[in-house]
Amino acid sequence: MGRTQITGVQIKDGHLYREDLNTTTTGKAVVTKTLAGQGISAQYTGVDEGTGDVTLSIDTTSSITWNVIIAETNTLASINDHIFLDGTAVITITLPSSAEINPGDRIKVTDISGILTTSAAVVDRNGSNIMKLAENFNINQNYVTCIFTYLDTSRGWGIEF
Question: If both were cysteines, with which of 42, 50, 63, 147 could 160 make a disulfide (CB 3.0 to 4.6 Å apart)?
Answer without folding.
Answer: 147
